[in-house]
Fold this protein.
Amino acid sequence: MESWVGHEVPRLPGRGGPLSLFDSARQGAAPSTPTGAGTMYVCGITPYDATHLGHAATMITFDLAQRVWRDAGLDVTYVQNVTDIDDPLLERAARDGEDWKVLAMRETALFREDMEALRIIPPAHYVGAVESIPDIAEKVLVLLKEGAAYRLDDGTGDVYFDISAAPRFGYESNLTREQMLEIFPERGGDPDRAGKRDALDPLLWRGAREDEPSWPGGDLGPGRPGWHIECAVIALNLLGDRIDVQGGGNDLLFPHHECSAAHAERLTGQAPFAGHYVHAGMIGLDGEKMSKSRGNLVFVSRLRADKVDPMAVRLALMSGHYRTDRSWTDDLLTAAQERLARWRRAGAAPSGPSGAAFLAGVRERLADDLDTPGALALADAWADQALAGTGDDPEAPALFTATVDALLGIRL
Ligand code: 5CA
Ligand code: ZN
């Protein structure tokens, strides 16, 4: 499907270094791209509600990764999905008496606008689950034929993945079976479904139900795809058998990314599916995770309608480290608005301290697992000095402005 419109990214002098990223599988940081190209797949929205600040923070995280890779001279291919058919979408549409397709189209359009306003570099491929159904059905059939999947014999046509076909199962999330069993039903899993071989086996294909949309699945029979196979197939088709980064919020650590990796690895015979599994922290409100089910959401579009500068929203979300679960507060936004105004004044100063040193410092901070608090502190220090009239580099304000634009995505 259509992506959103990007902005020009200023070219900076020289090159940044390799990006070290925390990988959930290794439980430690490691260089993210050994080769001259970078491939990244990020789990996008299920479009049954507007983009909230949690979605925005996760998208900003992977936007930063893409910016750092590009600055290091890498050729980047970034893919993001839209889960435009799944239970939550159908449930919301039914609750509101709306056509699920109309709901998905409207919220996806709003997401695109939000991403543009936040200056997120668009993915090369923005892909819906629905448009991927023929590819997904084909891969589910392969898993069935190879004995890695099985059909329930209750007449539903539902097909499950057999996790015993994934000997490494658990390597990505590093959870015990007890922990997995606890989390699985909270995140869409159905451990108690009768007829499953293992309680943790995930759904690959849901056979057609009378009151639900379905698509022809060839030899699979009509139905619709499971969630984890959606992301595995889209990533494999567009990025190849091994990707550098599989990204999303830390709510996807298990079962989503564990199962996607298990599906992909079984299909390709290669492991690991991703060089890095990267997880952004949850954004909460007043100490609780921001989520549709809790209803404690702050929407990007609401802030935009209230004339809040999207650059201040972006700065506020970057003031904490991406891996930290953190809360959105009014104070955070106010501080970001003040910081943005100060940076703008500093960027318009006649001179400042060395722009080259500032650029090198920001590159170094971001290459270290996207240390945005460190990068923002360097920009604050540079701005303080420029506004105090210390530093006599007349080129520095322009380089300061270009650096925060290219590397932090903040347009002054
Ligand atoms: N469509 C699936 C992924 S394939 C999904 O999780 N959709 S979502 O709309 O629930 O979330 C979209 C992205 O935002 C995911 O990467 C998710 O991990 C992330 N996300 C959701 N809630 C939050 C939050 N409160 N804070 C940070 N990131 C979040
Ligand atoms: Zn996903």
User: Anything to note?
Assistant: Residues 43-46, 54-55, 57-58, 81, 83, 231, 248-249, 251-252, 280, 282-283, 289-291 surround 5CA (ligand 1) (CB under 6 Å).
